[in-house]
Specification:
It is a single chain. By secondary structure, the protein is mostly helical. The protein has 4 helices and no strands. It is elongated.
């Protein structure tokens, strides 16, 4: 246990033994942490099914049904399908695809999300 404490102290706490620079904050360690983050992020894209929001078999009907199942479990009333909202969502999605962004507001000119409604 003492060895682990000493190791953690070396990497996280500035002291005479690490030239008053916590080893975990040295450039090589920061690059190491960056590479780990990039690797983990890349794995999410390489392994389909592990990425948030990735589904190949989802339909509008299935999404509505599963959402309503969860709402019912939580004592909430079910949602109803709305053509106008569906068209607005489709238009917003197409806009994000066309202008290559993932945000509520379009970065190029600040177009608001409700513009599509």
């Amino acid at each position: 246990m003492k060895h682990i404490h000493k190791l953690i102290h070396h990497y996280l706490v500035p002291s005479e033994h690490n030239n008053f620079r916590a080893r975990g904050l040295h450039l090589d360690m920061l690059l190491f942490f960056l590479m780990i983050g990039v690797t983990i992020n890349t794995i999410g894209y390489v392994w389909p099914g592990k990425l948030l929001g990735y589904a190949t078999d989802i339909t509008i009907e299935k999404l509505l049904s599963r959402t309503n199942e969860e709402r019912t479990r939580n004592g909430l009333s079910p949602l109803q399908y709305n053509d106008r909202l569906a068209r607005a969502a489709c238009n917003k999605g197409q806009d994000m695809f066309t202008y290559n962004y993932w945000a509520h507001y379009r970065p190029t000119d600040g177009t608001a999300p409700w513009h599509f409604y």
